[in-house]
Amino acid sequence: MAQSVLHKENMRGHANHGWLDAHHTFSFANHYNPEMMNFGVLRVLNDDRVAGGRGFGTHPHDNMEIITIPLTGSLAHQDSMGNSSVIKNGDIQVMSAGTGVYHSEYNADPDTEVNLLQIWLFPNKKNVTPRYGQQTLDLNERHNRFQQVLSPNADDEGVWIHQDAWFSLGSFDAGFETSYRIRKEGNGAYFFVIGGKVTVNGQELDTRDGYGVWDTSEISFKAETAGAEVLIMDVPMQLQ
Amino acid sequence: MAAILHRLLNNKPGWKGFTALTNTEAQQLTADNKPQVVLLGSGISTAEERELRTFFAGFPNVKVIQHYGGGSGLLYNEIQQVLS
């Protein structure tokens, strides 16, 4: 029988530093809630709003798969592997931190806020060689369907990471119904509502709610409002 | 990275932290300071980790955990979780 966990938008941790207004679905930085630590290997789901021209100075990471999805605005990235880029809505960026990497992330626009999702997954292999990837996605490919944007396979659709995880993004018309099939036995699916209202396996969800479902193979989905947007993170429930 | 973790640990009121870059250093610091928690970061080979875990087994009150992420994001959470 399917099991589930509901994280309402207002259950998230919140830290407003002025230049950074951050909401943490799972415990992060100084926000600690032992009931909301992770969903399988999904450890961090941060919804960050960064003021124009501001950002995260050079800082280190190791042994983590870090995925960044800009929702609005643009984000400038630089890292110790020599990568320098600007990502915006429609792009997805991945960094396998592995043995260690330094990077910075700044709002590329001096005047307009950037809103991004930053997601951290535990890797399935420790101390890999650090790696960076990014891709521009076709937004038309997610209308009334789940567009795969990340997988464990370099030759599959979207970016790839060191984990048996698949991410999908979708944007739906009101009343559109479909189902999501979990990609691998032992995985669960975490639905994060980027905007609008949806119903997942009978559970009504509002903007920025999160809902994890596991011990099942197929999950029903219905968009309740026009333009409802959802991110699905299909991840192993057990840490390797 | 070790310098940053050292600063973060010692910025937290009531906490005192040390960082080691070699197994010998880690063993010496453990023997001298009897820490409550040891975090293993990146860059340690499987053989080095095995050696460290064998050494820490001689200190039953020391909790040994893996540190993920590299910076401040999960550091405080990892320690709070193991201490609670």
From TrEMBL, chain A:
Binds 1 Fe cation per subunit. Transmembrane segments: none annotated. The keyword Cell cycle does not apply. CDD domains: cupin_Yhhw_N (cd02910). Fe cation binds at H59, H61, H103, E105. Residues 11-121 form the Pirin N-terminal domain. Its cofactor is Fe cation. One of its GO terms (molecular function) is metal ion binding. It comes from the Bacteria. InterPro entries: Pirin, Pirin_N_dom, Quercetinase_C, RmlC-like_jellyroll, RmlC_Cupin_sf. Keywords: Iron, Metal-binding. Belongs to the pirin family. This is Pirin family protein.
